[in-house]
Write a structure and sequence with these properties.
Elements lengths: L1 E5 L10 H15 L3 E7 L9 E2 L2 E6 L8 H16 L3 E5 L7 H6 L4 E5 L11 H17 L2 E4 L2 H11 L4 E2 L14 H6 L6 E7 L6 H9 L6 E7 L5 H11 L4 E5 L3 H9 L3 E4 L8 H8 L4 E4 L2 H4 L8 E2 L4 H11 L6 H14 L2 H17 L4
């Protein structure tokens, strides 16, 4: 098959859940003998490459403006896709899915992956949320097949678009834990003496709640926040101001590779205070490193089906603080660790996800109806 992928910022090592999804999925599909072309946004590609692990990379223009970036790039990428005449056009996320009807008019067979109801993100205004809802609807109505990453999204598509979708979860690789600590030393933290979070600096990730709850605690455990803002905003500046008021809080910026592995390998507790998620890959990664986790009780997190004590009331800073104090010095029980491993191996395998995705592609291709 010849596959063309749009709707992502690009790969490799570009922050974002969709980006991580594509980085793991498409080399596996290419490795099975299929031609995979992926369109990346020029502003995110630091070192231009034509190919990565068998995936052909096409770099296209995208304005660095939050409201225009995704839709402008998707339109340009769609024209490029039509020129390449793929067997399958795969569109990721509901914003880019707004152009699904145009893709169908261009006689392309389209698979859309809905990574979550982005219109619930706090960073978007009323107009943007309306457009995102429309994108969800256009992808749900006009794509040849729709993939969803959670049962919550599956229900949304059924109710809004009156169609069944294909449930394929996000995945995670079981890592080899890092034995190095040089990066930890470099940023001034001790192994097993810190709380961690990996995220983007946007309101729906709940970082303001985490920082406030942490600052209410009297502890010598540090708080390490891995991430940054794609677009500088009042909110991201406010977060940095809050963090600067407490020397125990360390902002590392975006990390990949061994530095990120070191942070995961030696963390005492992982916190995910999000107000909105699709299916959080960072949570799966934390579980893969056998880190005790504490996460908000939103639907996407509850769907992972962890023990009830691992959840706190979303937005409740007092509840977050009290549970952080309880779990901070508790090691992960052997039974819970084994259950987490079994969950990841059976439900969240990238190899299995690649096989499921290829099967959907083949079903679309074999159905001659345009």
């Amino acid at each position: 098959m010849k596959i063309f992928v749009i709707g992502t910022r690009g790969i490799p090592n570009i922050p974002g859940g969709v980006e991580k999804h594509c980085q793991e999925l498409y080399p596996r599909i290419a490795n099975k003998g299929h031609e995979v072309n992926l369109c990346a946004r020029k502003s995110y590609i630091k070192n231009k490459i034509d190919q990565w692990q068998g995936v052909k990379i096409h770099v296209c223009y995208a304005p660095r403006k939050k409201s225009l970036e995704a839709i402008t790039h998707t339109f340009i990428a769609l024209l490029k896709a039509r020129w390449h005449s793929p067997d399958i056009l795969h569109i990721h996320a509901i914003g880019p899915s707004l152009l699904t009807p145009i893709a169908r008019l261009l006689r392309l067979k389209v698979v859309c992956t809905n990574h979550g109801p982005d219109y619930k993100r706090q960073k978007w205004g009323r107009l943007a949320k309306t457009i995102l809802r429309l994108g969800e609807k256009m992808g749900g109505l006009f794509a040849n097949e729709v993939i969803v990453i959670s049962t919550i999204i599956e229900d949304i598509i059924y109710k809004r678009c009156n169609r069944k979708s294909n449930l394929i979860y996000n995945g995670v690789n079981l890592p080899n834990k890092s034995t190095n600590t040089d990066f930890l030393t470099q940023i001034g933290i001790e192994p097993n003496r810190y709380i961690m979070n990996v995220t983007r600096f946007v309101p729906e990730k709940g970082l303001h709640d985490l920082i406030k709850a942490y600052m209410m605690m009297k502890t010598d455990y540090k708080l390490v926040i891995v991430g940054d803002a794609d677009h500088e905003t009042d909110y991201s500046r406010h977060l940095r101001m809050l963090a600067s008021n407490d020397k125990r809080i360390i902002l590392t910026g975006y990390l990949t590779g061994n530095p990120l592995s070191q942070i995961y390998s030696y963390a005492s507790l992982f916190i995910l205070p999000s107000y909105h998620e699709g299916l959080p890959i960072v949570l799966l990664e934390a579980l893969s490193y056998d880190i005790p986790v504490l996460i908000s009780d939103i639907g996407a997190n509850l769907a992972v089906e962890l023990p009830s004590e691992r959840y706190f009331r979303c937005g409740d800073v007092e509840d977050l603080k009290s549970k952080m104090q309880i779990f901070l010095k508790q090691e992960l029980r052997v039974e819970e660790q084994q259950n987490n491993r079994k969950l990841l191996e059976t439900k969240y395998s990238w190899d299995k996800i690649a096989e499921q995705t290829i099967e959907i592609y083949m079903n679309v291709i074999n159905n001659n109806k345009m």
